[in-house]
Specification:
This protein is of the alpha/beta class. The protein has helices spanning 10-23, 51-66, 100-110, 170-181, 183-194; strands at 2-5, 31-34, 70-79, 118-128, 135-145, 161-163.
């Protein structure tokens, strides 16, 4: 089965591909295709108010463009002390062209002096067959925000997010552990059933 991943984010492509290999059974034989194979695919504007809306929109547009089964996700970090921010705007929260380092710096500045650093990563995954309505699932990983970044693995806010039950950040735990316990892993586990 061919499956298009509706993202140009190479960190997500690698993470999702690795997780699909872990989750898929021998009978499923999923051939993952990234948007790199479709350089003229439309750029989907993520203007939804929820992760689910954004994932469904991306999957629908790309499934229509490629005529193939498509999977899209949208994820974000929600920090209790910031009333759920950065939330659905996690990537754009520090500006359209902000790097991961700039986003982390803004987050840590906003949390300076805050003791309650509870947070969660949330991921919505949408699966769409061409000419069909999207099916969506949601995964959540609870944790807290460190006072300073640490670790080299992963992307985004991984160097400051410590998942519940662990003493290390996603960036320290490495891909193998992260890909088993993350918000995206929890959502993907449910999405496999949809595939």
């Amino acid at each position: 089965m061919k499956l298009v991943l509706a993202t140009r984010n190479q960190g997500k492509v690698k993470e999702l591909t690795d997780m699909l290999r872990l989750e898929a059974t021998a009978e499923q034989q999923i051939e993952v295709i990234s948007l790199e194979s479709y350089p003229d695919a439309p750029e989907v504007i993520e203007d939804g108010k929820t992760y689910t809306e954004n994932a469904a929109k991306k999957a629908s547009v790309i499934a229509e463009y490629t005529s193939l089964l498509t999977l899209a996700d949208d994820a974000g970090l929600e920090v209790d002390a910031l009333n759920g921010a950065p939330g659905v705007n996690s990537k754009r929260w520090a500006g359209e062209d902000a790097t991961d380092a700039i986003r982390i710096e803004k987050l840590l500045q906003r949390l300076e002096g805050v003791t309650d650093r509870r947070a969660r990563f949330v991921a919505a995954i949408a699966v769409v067959q061409p000419d069909s309505a999207p099916e969506t699932v949601l995964g959540v990983c609870e944790g807290h925000i460190r006072h300073a970044p640490i670790g080299e693995s992963g992307f985004g806010y991984d160097p400051v997010f410590v998942p519940e039950g662990y003493d290390q950040t996603f960036a320290e735990l490495g891909e193998e552990i992260k890909n088993q316990i993350s918000h995206r892993a929890k959502a993907l586990e449910q999405a496999i059933a949809l595939l």
